[in-house]
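ok so for the tutorial part 2 we go from a plain amino acid sequence to predicted structure tokens. step 1 is just haveing the sequence, like this:
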Amino acid sequence: MDKDRKSRLKDEYRRKLSVGAVYALECSGNHRRWIKSTTDIQGIRNRFQFAASIKDCPDPVTRAECARYGTDSISLVVLEELQMKEGQTAGEFADEIKLLEELWTEKLQSNDHEDK
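step 2 — the prediction. this is what the tokens look like for a chain of 116 residues:
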């Protein structure tokens, strides 16, 4: 690969806007749910799918559930995706995703209390 093409590809990659998300890991065996967030939802999906394909625990927080109910009991549910805005810094984007996670956590906790 010539130097100019490599440089162009690097520039394109840097300009590519990230897609973050708030997601839940849910266990069908005991109905536990963990709310998480990321600035790279595709990376999380890839890791989750790979772990599932080799029957491995997809996330350390689910280790006990995987051991008890099996790795197939864990699912990944995307609650909301958010695209990084042009001109937004990585730190600003991470802060926005974290705030979105807090909102989803509050919303789901209030829904859980209403169901009881």
